[in-house]
Amino acid sequence: DQVEVSQLILQHMIFTRMGRKGLDLWKKEIKSMLTSMETYERNFTTRDKLDMICDAMRNFNERVFTLEMAVWRASCLQFDTRFQSMEDVLEHESSQA
Predict the structure, then answer these.
(1) Partner of 64 at 20 to 30 A CA spacing, among 1, 23, 27, 75?
(2) For residue 60, with 0-12 CB atoms within 10 Å meaning exposed, 13-18 middle and 19 or more buried, which class applies?
């Protein structure tokens, strides 16, 4: 299927670039690429393909953000064994204020 092949190629390209550039620079580059693909396109087939690629990139970018948050959350709990969850951390912080 053409869509699956496009997704696999795009996924490989994204993983490779992210590994070489680092996460912050990669995010800036993705935003720039998405902005550049939002140009007017007269050919409807090309526009549909660009929209599919943009949607896949936005979806992947959201997953990276979610993963980044999960890693941050886990690292917060790892350093202080008094807390079992982020809710415990937030309750502790609010009681200290």
Answers:
(1) 1
(2) middle
pTM above 0.85, yes or no: no
| Four-residue CA torsion sign, 46, 51, 54, 59 | negative
> pLDDT tens digit string along 46-61?
888 888 888 888 888 8
Q: Alpha-carbon distance 77 to 75, whole Å?
A: 5
Q: Where do we find the tokens 């890693």?
A: 71
**Residue 22 identity:** G
16-21: long-range contacts, CB 8 A cutoff, minimum separation 24: 18/64
